[in-house]
Specification:
Largest sheet: 4 strands, mixed
CATH topology: Glutaredoxin
CATH architecture: 3-Layer(aba) Sandwich
Strand content: 5-15%
InterPro entries: Arsenate_reductase-like, Nase-assoc, Thioredoxin-like_sf
Distance between the termini: 31 Å
Helix content: 25-40%
Family: Belongs to the ArsC family.
CATH superfamily: Glutaredoxin
CATH class: Alpha Beta
Oligomer: single chain
Structural class: alpha+beta
Number of domains: 1
Radius of gyration: 15 Å
Strand order of the largest sheet: 2-1-3-4
Protein name: Nitrogenase-associated protein
Order of helices and strands: EHEHHHEEH
């Protein structure tokens, strides 16, 4: 199938389920730590630029959930600077196909299926994005 670079938060249960779905569909993954990657404005925008600024953000991040950071109120340059300074705020996973270089943000099942193929069935969840339940927390990064 396809080889993907998969930027994730280590210890995140949601990212683990996403990886499992990709591997079950026959894809291979090169896992990278989203939090310690050396992001530049150009490298991050390669993923994020096609999306509206609010869609760049991980809505489960503590500073967003508390209301301290309000993605809907941020302009592009301020949002980009904030994400580079605090990668925990970046919506994940970030994925890149190694065969054609296309990139994808987040894990809406239908969108990922259309992008690389998941072999999903109607009984599978519409999205594997984020945590499975409001009470599930991802482990803190090591």
């Amino acid at each position: 199938m396809t080889h993907l670079v998969f930027f994730e938060k280590p210890g995140c249960g949601g990212n683990a389920r996403q990886r499992a779905a990709l591997v079950a569909a026959g894809h291979t993954l090169e896992q990278r730590n989203l939090l310690t990657a050396h992001w530049t404005a150009q490298s991050l925008l390669a993923f994020l630029a096609p999306l509206p600024v609010p869609d760049w953000f991980n809505r489960a991040a503590p500073r967003i959930k508390s209301g301290e950071v309000q993605p809907d109120m941020l302009e592009r340059d301020a949002a980009l600077a904030l994400l580079m300074a605090e990668p925990l705020l970046i919506r994940r996973p970030l994925m890149q196909r190694t065969d054609n270089g296309t990139r994808h943000v987040g894990f809406d099942t239908a969108a990922v299926d259309a992008w690389v193929g998941l072999g999903t069935n109607p009984a599978s969840p519409r999205t594997l994005e984020g945590c499975a339940s409001p009470t599930e927390r991802c482990a803190d990064p090591a």
